Give the backbone structure.
Amino acid sequence: MKFITEDDLRILFRKEPFTSYDLPAEARLTPGARQFLVDKKIPISDDPMAVKRKNEKLTEKKEEAPDKKTCRDRFLLKKKTLQAQFLEVGLELLSRDVLLAEQVFDLERKLLNLKEEGREEETGFKPCTGFHEDHMQEPFEDCFEITGFHAQSEKGKEILLLHRLRCSTRELAAEAGSENLNPVINRLSQMICLEYGGKTCQRK
C-alpha cells in the first residue's frame, strides 16, 4: 500500500493548484497530508475514512426511518386482528341483540375495505346532537367515562363490549398516526350512548 505524504501533495499543488483530490486506488493519506488538504479546504474523493463515515451515516438514517412497506404491513396485520375482535364481539352479541350485532358486523366490513392511506366514508353513521357529517372524521374523546356503574346497568355487557372495541380501534389509530379510523371510533361512541339509553348527548 502506498502512502501519500504532505510533501507529495505540496509538490503536486505547486505544479498545478487543484480544488479536489482523487485518492489513487490502494493508497492512503498520512495524517500530515490529510491536514494539508483540510487546511486548503480541498475535498477528498475515494477517501476510505470519508466513505466509512458516509456509510455509517446512511446506516444510521436507514435504522431510524422504518421502511414504508414494513409500516404498511404492520398496520394491515394489526387491522386484521382488530377485525377479528369485531367479529368475536358481533358473535357474542347475536344472542343478546341481533340489530346491535349486525351494526358491529357492518363496522367490521368497513374495516376490511379500509386502507392506511384511504378513508372509508360509510360507517352506518346517523347524525345526532353530538356528531354530524361535517366532523365525523375528527378525533373525539369518549362521550362519557365508562365505569363500574355502566357495567352494572341493564345493557352493561353490550356497553363494555363496544367500549373494548372502541379502545382497540383508538390504539391502532394512535399507533398508525391515522385519522382514517376516527369515523369507526365515533360510530362506536354513538352506539354506546344509545345502549345506555341516552336521549341527550353525553359528550361534553
Q: What stands out?
A: The first strand starts at residue 2 and ends at 4. The radius of gyration is 31 Å.
